[in-house]
Amino acid sequence: MTILTVQSSYIPSRVPVTKNSNFDQIPSWVSLKSSTSSSSSVKIEHKQGQVENLHLVSLSKNGKLNEAFEFFQEMDKAGVSVSPYSYQCLFEACRNLKSLSHGRLLHDRMRMAFENPSVFLQNCVLQMYCECGSLEDADKLFDEMPELNAASRVTMITAYAGQGFLDKAVGLFSGMLASGEKPPSSMYTTLLKSLVNPRSLNVGRQIHAHVMRTGLCSNASIEIGILNMYVKCGWLVGAKRVFDQMAVKKPVAWTGLMVGYTQAGRARDALKLFVDLVTEGVEWDSFVFSVVLKACASLEELNLGQQIHACVAKLGLESEVSVGTPLVDFYIKCSSFESACRVFQEISEPNDVTWSAIISGYCQMSQFEEAVKTFKSLRSKNAAVLNSFTYTSIFQACSVLADCNIGGQIHADAIKRSLIGSQYGESALITMYSKCGCLDDAHEVFESMDNPDIVAWTAFLSGHAYYGNASEALRLFEKMVSCGMKPNSVTFIAVLTACSHAGLVEQGRHYLDTMLRKYNVAPTIDHYDCMIDIYARAGLLDEALKFMKNMPFQPDAMSWKCFLSGCWTHKNLELGKIAGEELRQLDPEDTAGYVLPFNLFTWAGKWEEAAEMMKLMNERMLKKELSCSWIQEKGKIHRFIVGDKHHPQTREIYEKLKEFDGFMEGDMFQCSMTERREQLLDHSERLAIAFGLISVNGNAREPIKVFKNLRACPDCHEFAKHVSLVTGHEIVIRDSRRFHHFREGKCSCNDYW
DNA sequence: AGTGCTAGGT
C-alpha cells in the first residue's frame, strides 16, 4: 500500500531522552528510506505527500527544527514536494525559535519551489525575518514582493515601530493611508504602543490628530492607546485632556492616568484621581489597587493604605496575588515589615514578584543575611520564583556583606539561568565585586556590558575610588564623558570621593567648580560636604572653615562631621571642640560628636573634658560601636573583636602574633597611652590577619582579605605594612571607608586616609 | 492596564 516502512536501521538521533511523560513525542519511525521500488512511489505520490507533509508539520509545531530539516531533505531526495502549509509551519517554527539561519535556508528553498508564492506565504517569511530580528532581510523581501497586502504592511510597521525606527514605521503608515488602504484598528494600537518616550511625542500627536479626523477616537482601545501613549511620552496634560473627553471612563483609563502621575512623582495627583474614582462609583479592579498602593507607598501614606487594605479584606481579595503583592510592597515601603509578612501569609499563590518584594524588603531593612537565607531556600525549593529582580537584590546584599564567595556563586547561577538583569543586575554586580575587594571581576563585568549606562560607569568609578585609585577614577570619568555619557549628581560624589581618598585638593575643587558650568549638574550640600572632607583630610582646616562659611548652604551635621574628623586626624583641639558642639547640636544621636572630641581631649591630656564627653554619651543612652573584624576562609566567616579569645584556634593566633613581637616594641614606642598600648596587641584586625596567616598556610598568591566595621587604626595599619614586608603576603583591609592594599611594606593609600 | 531591582560620602 505505502512506501512508508518501519526500518530498524533508522535510529532517531535527535529525539531527546526525557524522564517525563513523552506525550508530545513524535514517532520517529516515519522514514522515506525505502527498499521498495521507486516505480510504485509514483503511483501513490499524492497520498504519500500528504502523510510526509503532515509529519513535517508535526515536527515544526513541536519545535523540532533540526529533525524537520533532515526530514525535509529526505522528502527532497524522494521527490516528495513540500506543501505551502508545511512551509508556513516551518517558518513559524523558525520564528518561535528565533533561528534566522534556518529561516534563511528555508526562504531560499521556498523561492526554488514556487515561482509565485502567495502573499500569505510571503508574509510568513516577512514575519519570520522580523521576529528573528533581521529587519534587513525583511526590508529586502518587502521591496521584492510583487504583491503586498495590509498584513504585509502591518508586519513591517510593527517591526519598525518595535525596534524604534519611528520614521520608517510612520512613513509606511502614511503611505498606507495615502494609497487609500484602510489600516485595521489594531494597526493604530500597535503603533501607539511603540511610542514609549518623549522623543515620539510629536508622532503620537499626529496620530492622535489623524484619529480625530477619521472619527476613530470612538474606538475604546484606540482612545485608551492614545491616553497611554501620552503618559509614556511624558505629556500628562495631553493624557488628562484625553481622559476628560472620554464619554465612558473605564477603569483602564483611570489606572492609565494614575500610573502616569505616580511615575512622574506626582503621587498626590494620583491619589486625588483615586478619590474621584471612588466618588464616581467606578468599579475597582486589581489594577486600581496596585496603582493606588504604589502611590501610597511612595508617599508613605500608611493611613490611606491601611484603609485600602481594609477594602481588600472586605472584598476577600487578600489571597489574590495581584492585590496581595502590591500590598506587601506598600507595607515594606512604609517600614511595616511585620504587616507585610502578615499580608504575605494570606497570599495563596505567591509569585516571583511577591518574592522579589519580600527579598528587597529584607534588604531595605538591612537584613541582608536574611535576604540571602531566603534566597537560598527558594533556590532549593522553588527556583521558578526567582527572577532577575531578586538576583539584583541579592547582589546588593552580598556587596553589603562583602561576601564574594557566595556572591560569585550566585553570579554563576544567574548566568546559567540567564537572570542577570541588564543594566540593573550588571551594575549591582560591579558594586558587589568592588566592595568585596575584587576590582578585576568588577572590571570584567563592566567590560562585558553592551551599553554601560551612567549607573554602571558610576559604580565602576566608585570602585576605583574605594581603592584610592584616584588617577584611574578620574581617567575613567574623562573617558566616560568622551563616550557621550552625561555625569549626574552621584557621579560627582564618586569623583570627589576619589579625590578625597587620594588627597587631590586642587582636582576636587576643580570638579566642584565646573560641575554646574561644564556638565550642568547643580552641586548639592552633599557635594559641598565632600569638598569639606577633602580639605579637612588634607589638614587644610582653615580653608575648610572658610569654605563652610561661604558655601551656599547652611553646614549640616555631615559638614561638621567631616570637619571634626579632620580635626582629629590633624590633632586640632580648638577647632575640634567647636565642630563637636555643632555636630552634637545638629545630630545628638551621632556618636562621632562625642567619640572624636573624647579622643582629642584624651590626646591633649584633658581628662575632665574627656570624661564629660563620656558622661554626655551615657546620659543620651548612646553606645560607641564595638570594633570588629572578619575574614573568610573556605566560605566560612571568622569574626574577631578586641582581645577575642573565643576562636577555637586562639592559641595559634596569639602565637602567630608573637612572631611579630619585635615590631610591636617599635609600635609601643609611638604610643602615648598605657591603656592603648595593651589593647593594640590584640586589636581585632590583628587577630584576623594572624588567623589569615595561619590559614593561607604559606600560599602567598591569594591576598589575605580582612574586613572591618570601623576605620583602620594607624597602629594596625603600620602592623599590616610590616607583616606584608616580612611575610611577603599581600594583605587587603577593607575598613568602613575604603580598601587598603598592603604589598611589600607599602599601602595603596600612601598612608593617606 | 498594574506590582518587584541598579550607582554615594561620614
Automatic annotation (TrEMBL):
The keyword Repressor does not apply. Residues 673-753 form the DYW domain. It holds the Pfam family PPR_2. The keyword Cell membrane does not apply. It comes from the Eukaryota. PPR repeats lie at residues 118-152, 250-284, 351-385, 453-487. Keywords: Repeat. Belongs to the PPR family. PCMP-H subfamily. This is Pentatricopeptide repeat-containing protein At5g13270, chloroplastic-like. The gene is LOC104769542.
